[in-house]
Amino acid sequence: MDEAQKLYQRALALNPKWTEGWWSLGTLYYDGDRYAEAERAFDKVVALDPKQGTARAMLGLCEFELEQFDRALKDIEASKTLGVLEDEQLRNVVTYHESVLLQRAGRFEAAKEALSSLCRNGVRSNAVAGTFGLVALRMRDASPPDPNNEAGQVVQHVGRGACLSGAK
């Protein structure tokens, strides 16, 4: 990974308008949990190709990890308008992070819609249940409590019920 990153950096120094190179470098950084570097690379992709929805989604995921929540939500919402690659796993990751951002912003109906789409797609996890529980209980600016204590179990149960309802 380190060698690949160095090679992309050298190639991009020669041709800074190589969109695919910035994309590849960004994904290498993201996969290595180097979100600040990934953010800069995906920002370059978006600057070179503003209609690249998948790059905008990846930019939003980086911003989420860097706790730039307002920017992350803006970029994730823009990516939906532009279109994201038909990669179901990426789409689910982006939708989950969008739902967390919407919950934190107090946009509960929009978060419910996003989480319901995950549930309809068969995505079931403690993270989804916890976030859906917070949304159903209208708890803003909160992270799901520890599922090993009573409050966390209540949030998990409410979230699982909401997920079943959202999945119809």
Outline the structure in words:
By secondary structure, the protein is mainly alpha-helical. It folds into 2 domains: 1-84, Tetratricopeptide repeat domain (Serine Threonine Protein Phosphatase 5, Tetratricopeptide repeat), CATH 1.25.40; 86-168, no CATH class. It is built from 9 helices and no strands. The longest helix has 18 residues, at 150-167. It is elongated.
List keywords for this structure.
168 residues, mainly alpha, Serine Threonine Protein Phosphatase 5, Tetratricopeptide repeat, 2 domains, 9 helices
Note the overall shape: elongated
The top level CATH class name of the largest domain? Mainly Alpha
What name does CATH use for the topology of the largest domain? Serine Threonine Protein Phosphatase 5, Tetratricopeptide repeat
Helix content: over 70%
Low-confidence stretches: none
Roughly what is the average pLDDT, rounded to an integer? 94
CATH 2nd-level architecture of the largest domain: Alpha Horseshoe
Largest sheet: none
What's the order of the H and E elements? HHHHHHHHH
What's the Cα radius of gyration? Answer: 18 Å
What fraction of residues sit in β-strands? under 5%
Number of helices: 9
Any idea how many domains?
2
Strand count = 0
Assigned CATH superfamily of the largest domain: Tetratricopeptide repeat domain
Distance between the termini: 43 Å
Query: What structural category arises from helix and sheet content?
Result: mainly alpha
